[in-house]
């Protein structure tokens, strides 16, 4: 349910704003429906006046909740109509602009004349929709008068924080009341008495949801005593689906830190035994619900090859689960005391408040913390809400809210969590509730979720000058700071929801968000009010299962999610299913068929006029229909890892609202013409320069908003260096990573002077962080490479630049951390030019951590003694491989070097550097090397 913010815009406010926007109004006048839209606006404005009171009463009064749900359903329908009008209006404004007579835009946007049958059909259908909505809106307005709702009931507005301070790891100093618990469990795990009798001991932490079991397990897992005691450690989130194959696979992957493709249990267990054999391991199984003893017996079968003293730590809400799995008594995790709750609350809530405010609010804060009844999750969510407020009015409103006193049968969600949601700004409510279409323990990727929110129209609040993506990122960070999301294994780009928070998303989204797993279709009722859905297909015969969706004509989201344990493989989707989907679900904003085995899309994709987000990544698609270019509203097109895709539609330039085009991992031979028209592009992962057809590299010129990573292939097809200059790479200040590639084919060995001229003209902006140059056949590197102005560059790879006889002054790159030089046929000496010329106080390669030289066939000498005071002060990894003629010395003193690898350097005669921190030394096929004293 989308409910009104106490003061400020509601979900109806966003819709009302759309009804008065231009050029929609002008187009509505032409269609003679402007009076109707104005009536809608007035009615919705009157209804909006009672929304806050309705939101406050809906939990206690069922009639109010039913009315709110009906209102929201109708608001979706109104928004669909408005979106259709708005699309037509924007298309018309493009074709009727001041330069319409000469602009090529007219050719790109299809228009329909007054006598065009398609236009007549559109007008008739739209007229019917408008009449139906008007009748339903009048009925909603009349029903409102029969409800005990008051206008202008206000409250406190909790806005969004623009500057958020977050941490990427579990910081033990911020965890209150668990020191004693941690010490008891760690002592038990490490004591001889606890581990002496059994080869593998199983301990369990038992407690209710939100009490902090996972957090306690995390701080135990990261305790230095545990790290030092166990040779192998693994963490696996189990949740309510105890899939033995999937869990075994996760354990193996956690131990090896690499993905495993197999789904054969016997093979997986054999591999796991090899990893565990005679090694003392520590395994955390988090959030276990399984009560089937046979499943546990099968899962633990490989564990007993581990060394004596190995430990499995289980967290669960259920004592029965613990009794099945444990070999030791379970540890019952109790509630926090009132004082511990207050310490945790004050630490979070007072983060951004001054000392006077803290003192004035302490007494109220202590009462709120006490109401959280010892549950850390409840404390953190409310504290995250209140830290943006410094006045007692807001804090008192939360303290005295009626939700605290509701009986359990009326409020199945913890009151503190309910209040944390209730006081969110409307935009955050919509973004949060949407997440209920994802399964429990789903690993969220921030960037992908923001793009989905954008496609659904939730991010209309971007009015402060930032891009819509930046606003979406801020929304995510706000939910993270309020503990609605948590970092996944301390990862900065992946996040999860606590189970209780996920329950809250399902409660707040009601009938409008829906998730269906294949085998559940006969057990779950599908409502016509559903607008956002996900579906997990686990079997090949899916047509009957997906048919149930085809009656939901107003569905906006169709996300086909692969089962987690099967993410490495694709699932079959028949043409019949895809055709039915695209022909029927015409209100879709989001369509994802990622990881499903489809080879083509039907031309009926053109019916999805509302579509903003299309994900076909990791599919077998060979080509896209030309009709896809009529999707005027499309913002995101995902085609990553479509390994059979060789061409894009010729008229891609029509997609002028496209912002993100991901085409990495494809077999594209060229880019279509008129790519330069897609001026809104923020993401373009790949650009392939065509030989005789397709876009020139110069068409990148007007794509000034590109960010993230851009890889340019087949630069040998650039016929004129002026075209490279026109690409304006120097003006693309938001790009983080740039890869420039020529084709690795001796038969295409072009003029080295031409290649050098092209690379010179492709100079990137100095903001660039990572650069890769591959298969470049010019005789020299460009003058800009190594310039000190590239102050942000942290990574550089020069691969197969086989004709360059000298290296650029890379030592001048002050922030460079990783440097890789691979495959060169003419370089004989690495000399002083490599270090550069800086002031007397300048130390070259001052930040470099990893240095790799590989396959440099003619390299004989490394002059590394010309830098006063030493070079490479922070180098911790040096790798030299397949340099058969190298004879000279290596750097003498590398104070922080931990890894030194020298392979296949047959003539190398030298003394190894002094490296007091060395941990890994690998020498193979070298003539004669003398160990330094510190290496002996």
From TrEMBL:
Taxonomic lineage of the native organism: Eukaryota, Viridiplantae, Streptophyta, Embryophyta, Tracheophyta
InterPro entries: Apaf_helical, LRR_dom_sf, LRR_R13L1-DRL21, NB-ARC, P-loop_NTPase, Rx_N, WH-like_DNA-bd_sf, WHD_DRP
Domain Disease resistance N-terminal: start-end pairs: 11-99
Top-level taxonomic group: Eukaryota
R13L1/DRL21-like LRR repeat region domain: residues covered: 698-822
Key words of the record: ATP-binding, Leucine-rich repeat, Nucleotide-binding, Plant defense, Repeat
Protein species of origin: Vitis vinifera (Grape)
Protein name per Swiss-Prot or TrEMBL: Disease resistance RPP13-like protein 1
NB-ARC domain location: 181-352
Pfam families, sorted: LRR_R13L1-DRL21 (PF25019), NB-ARC (PF00931), Rx_N (PF18052), WHD_DRP (PF23559)
Repressor among keywords: no
Domain Disease resistance protein winged helix stretches: 437-504
